[in-house]
Amino acid sequence: MKILRYNTVCENECLFYKLLRLLNEYGWYNLGLGAWIKSRRIRDNGFQEVALRVLVWSGVVGEASRIKGGIDQVLNYQGREYRFVFGPGDVKADAAYYQHRCKSSYCIEHDDIVSLLPEKPKPLIVIDLAQLHMHNLDEASSLRRQLAATLGVIRRFLWDRHLLLTNAAEGVRAWLKSFMATMQVQMSSLNTDDALDVRGYTGLRILLDPNADKDLQPDEVVKADVFILGGIVDKRPRPGATRELPIEGAVRRRISLRGSIIGVPHTINTLVEALLLARYVYDGNIERALYDVTPPHEARIRAYVEISRVIRGAKGAYVDWDLYEELVKWLPLRPRDFEKAARMAGARLRRSYEEYLLSKDQSHH
């Protein structure tokens, strides 16, 4: 059984809490499935997946009479315990998700959830496509995959209307359709400033720029109405590309890791995932969120930089696993990644990680 935990910001903004409010109105606290959904789709949060399917795919939640299962997930909200019933077990579901129209006396449908959603989705994730024309076919294909993955990340907590594509030329929707078949993403041919102005976003707007002078702060992660990212794929060096975006109405911030952008993921979807995790799970702590999403190769590159700093360029110098133990506190680094990083830096390890752990264990006795 998985206990789901989110902060109060998520309670106010995340989609699945709207579903919980509606479930509470009917006295339904055990939610099951009356239609098949792949287990990987509900692994993180079954309530969110059901809310999405009602909102985007026109499913319904209705009374359940014969559906039973195990308690797969539990979420506490406003003094009530909501249970997601899935897999083998004898727990009876009060309500269940169905793919088609409502067949019971009481149902939660698309319009019920829409009635609880704010007119202006917050936060709004904006991808500025002003530089799309500068990409070659390979880069454009990579960008399209990242945009599709970004929608998937947003759907972990929110829904499609929280994503806005600006400077979207004619044909962009068709260009995205094969990767984002069912989507209700916002698109605008206007520049980012104008697109946000006409939608009434007057609060804090943050443009993520790796060359910005100031780091993104925890309170900004939590309070921002809008996060803006450049739709840029850097398979070829484009120094300062984000700085060239014609955006005036936003403050520029960089996401850094212990004072450096080295080791910070650069794909759009990974950055958005870090932002949402920091906002809804880690109370604005972007470094903690980066730990969850940074891929091994990015962590390895940062470890190489840290090892090089320690040995000061002395090729063949020795490093020990004490340095690994320090780095792994803030880098998702595996022992084999540390070994590779040491080789990249021209350093040598005095012993294996197993020998290091054994010596530590012996020293404690």
Automatic annotation (TrEMBL):
UniProt GO MF annotations: tRNA methyltransferase activity
Domain SAM-dependent MTase TRM10-type: 109-301
Keywords: Methyltransferase, S-adenosyl-L-methionine, Transferase
Top-level taxon of the source organism: Archaea
GO biological process: tRNA methylation
Pfam families: SFM1-like (PF04252)
Name used for this protein in its record: tRNA (Guanine-N1-)-methyltransferase
Protein species of origin: Pyrolobus fumarii (strain DSM 11204 / 1A)
